[in-house]
Structure formats: C-alpha cells, structure tokens
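Q: How would the structure tokens look for this protein?
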Amino acid sequence: MKHIFVILSLILLSSCSHTQQIDTSNINGYWEIEEVILPDGTSHVYKINETVDYFSINDSLLGYRQKMKTDADNNYTPVTKKENIKLITENDSLKIQYKTPFAEWKETILELNSNRLKVVNKHQNVYIYKRYIPLNL
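A: Here is the predicted structure in token form.
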C-alpha cells in the first residue's frame, strides 16, 4: 500500500506545473523605476526619478503601494493616496492586484529579488524597478 501511495504521489507531483518560488517579503520597501519597455520593444530609461514607489505587504499578502517624493535630506512625502494591493497566484503566476476607489488592475511579477522588481501589465508594458538607495550628500 505504501508503494502505491508513493507512486501516485510522484505522478501527481510530476504532473503539476511548478510556479517559480518568489520570496514575497522582498517587495517591501522603496523602489524606483529604472526602465519601461513597451510592447513594440522601445524602452525608456529613467536616470533620475522625482518619486519612488513604497510597497508594504504583510504576512497575509495584503498591503499597499504609495508614491513618495524624496528630498535631499532623505525625507519621504506621500504624493498619492495609498493603493490597496494583494499578492495573488493566478494562472501559475504571482500577481499584484491593485484596488483604488476609481479602478482595479493587476500586474504579473516576472522577477522579484532584494534588488530588482520586474512586472508586466495587461498592455504588455514591462516595468523594471531597482531598489531605491537614499542619497548620501
């Protein structure tokens, strides 16, 4: 009986698709857009950003994103209201689901580690973020 269970378990595991393991805690913190790649392949590289995105996600994968302005003293001032977000798995992909009083949308996470966040939206625009490093003046 044990052998049948083991064989059935192996078959089941091998037939399941494997989603990429992503450490979702890496999303927490300040991010700045480095580049946007449009569906036609053209890109816009951002050398300087006036705002950064702050992400905060809890253990329940709920949280918010808020655009922040930084100054020379590394103070952060909100420039938008918080957008409620939730990390969800959909079609074997990890997605950020946004919700505001005016709209709802999703972005698929293509890459997430401690220094890089790469997402694609429904228009196939790819946003590449890098971890924001405060200025040392």
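Residues 2-15 form the longest helix (14 residues).

Residues 1-19 have pLDDT under 50 and may be disordered.

Upvote if useful.
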